[in-house]
Amino acid sequence: MTLLRVAGMLGRGGSRAERARARLVAVGAALATWFLFGAANVLALHGQLDDRLGPIANRGTRPGTAFAFGLMILPIAAFLHQTGRLASADRERRLAALRLTGATPAQVRLLGALETTRSAALGTVCGAIAYVLLEWSIRGLLLHLPTTAAGVPPALGLAAMALVIAVAAVSGLLAGRHVVTSPLGVTRRATRRRPGRRVLLVPVLGCVPMVARFAGLPVPYRPYSLLLGAGLFAVGMMLSTSLLVWASARVAGRRARSAETLLAARALETDARPWGRTMSVLGLAVAIGSGTGWIEAGIMDDRHTLDPFWLTSFTLVDLALLVAMAVTAAALLVHQAEYLMEHGPVLATLRATGVADGELRRVLLRQGIIAAVLPCSVAALIGLLGLTDTGGLHNETWAWWPVTNAVLMAALGVLAATLTTKASQRRLQRAVSPGRLRTE
Amino acid sequence: MTLLEARRIEKTFGRTHALRGVSVAIESGEVVAITGPSGSGKSTLLHCLSGIMCPEAGEVHYDGRRIDTLDEAARTRLRRDAFGIVFQFGRLVPELTAVENVALPLLFNGDGREKSATVARDWLERMDALDVADARPGELSGGQLQRVAMARALVTGPKVVFADEPTGALDSLAGEKVLGLLLEAARVNGSTVVLVTHDNQVAAHADREIVVRDGAAAGVVA
Ligand SMILES: Nc1ncnc2c1ncn2[C@@H]1O[C@H](COP(=O)(O)OP(=O)(O)OP(=O)(O)O)[C@@H](O)[C@H]1O
Ligand SMILES: [Mg+2]
């Protein structure tokens, strides 16, 4: 197929950022494959295992564990989605030559999607091979577990790989949406609009059953309608995060007293969607983390000591949350790289006119703070309130923990969002070097 | 009195000798045009004079002080306090309105939001661009962009205004107008102007023309 051949040819060209994109997409796909394989692996286990293995040991907690593994896909999807967009303007510029020879915009976008899909496929296959090899060697050589533990069922494994590649393909197709290419090769970002307000209806709708229950009204199909409501609420809040980020940026921009805050807020306001996407995943991690506070307090309240099962479980949950936040932060890092690439000449100009490095760094930092504070606080609050009565505390000894935990989680979320600035420092330095004054 | 002076400065980029021993002296209050063919090193000279870059050899003096040996922080301070710089394509921050772009240097200096906005509007009016004060750069024409960029460069009352092809992206009529506004404002301000251009018509507005060829000052036309 000629389209594939063209895609192959184009794959060899490309800027540094574009090669970085290919590698990052592959890494994201490999990571996603790992977690999905992990989920499949847990589901395939038989019988009772050592308690020290925590939630994997019991048959009853395995589906939940597998689900948690599956959830880890969300931050990775955000990461993939963000990396797929990295330097998409570069790519379109490169592909603009094709437009001159008569390719339609849809075909050009398809080429972009093919590129992303190919990288994702490569990453998935490598990830799968690495997982199987590692799992096989750990099981055989270290644990000497022959029959009670089974590997990844081939059908589930293949399905997982197909899922990852499909997600990457869809994300790749969407990536070119905001780039306008004319056959003349002029590429610019289409003006980005404010995120739609209608999504707010979704979480509001989700609240209806819960509100009805608290008001003492009859709620039909009781457990299911409540669960559905909670699900709608969670998804709706995630979808509304862009709006939340946009609103924070707007308020911050209006009240900004310093140039740094003004620059940060306005950049965020015009670009709320990518921040919102990643913040929604970060928020989910914060909400789950803050909800676990009740469960932990309830169990400590009950038993006063921790048996190995719970110790492992708590540790695993915290570890998973940390990994989720780290992956989300990586997605933000990628987005920040894109911001620096796009704004390089403008930032270099500011630099030339006497704006200090520290001030530019503060602009980046404040972007993270403005974007993260509101979503993370709301998420922590939802986690705290949503799970209020699950713990069922009998006495007050551990009552301080859920609130403390929620505050810690929100702080951790904001920290994750702002630490990326530290990591972007070198890139910022390069983006504002005097050489960038020459490029148009 | 000599305000700004380069003494035999040299600058290379890899194998390219962009400047090979240029010497220029610019008097206070003067309007100087730096002209020369493309690639002759005009922009590089401007960047060295304005402390954006440091030459590898030679010296740059401003107001009796050697500036090419200052560290980055000190040169940044100098550019902010004493210099105003205009580039070919305006290079405004795309997310900010015109008036916010002009107010930005004042905000960075710690002036309040209201006060800087008032001063910024004042400068936009002088640059004949008050009608686009609340528009974003994406909505402006090339001439409007340059007028806003000039307002941004002049708003802090700089001692020296550097302009690198400020009219390069404009047709000659719009270019004349923009240049006229810049020179008038600089005269009122008492600012020295260093203008890079390859347009003879533009250079004709200057008190003096310095011609750069192959990285060396080839002559001075009074
Ligand atoms: N950052 C850089 N990296 C590499 N080479 C550079 C850099 N800056 C300038 N040069 C080279 O130095 C020489 C002088 O460049 P400069 O931009 O000063 O010329 P110019 O006179 O301003 O040209 P133009 O009229 O086209 O703007 C050119 O050969 C250019 O390629
Ligand atoms: Mg030049």
From TrEMBL, chain A:
Localization (cell): Cell membrane
Protein name in the entry: ABC3 transporter permease C-terminal domain-containing protein
Species: Actinoallomurus iriomotensis
GO CC, alphabetical: plasma membrane
TM spans (from-to): 21-44, 64-84, 119-138, 158-180, 200-221, 227-247, 279-297, 309-334, 369-387, 399-420
Domain ABC3 transporter permease C-terminal intervals: 67-182
Membrane topology label: Multi-pass membrane protein
Database matches in Pfam families: FtsX
Lineage top rank: taxon: Bacteria
UniProt entry keywords in alphabetical sequence: Cell membrane, Membrane, Transmembrane, Transmembrane helix
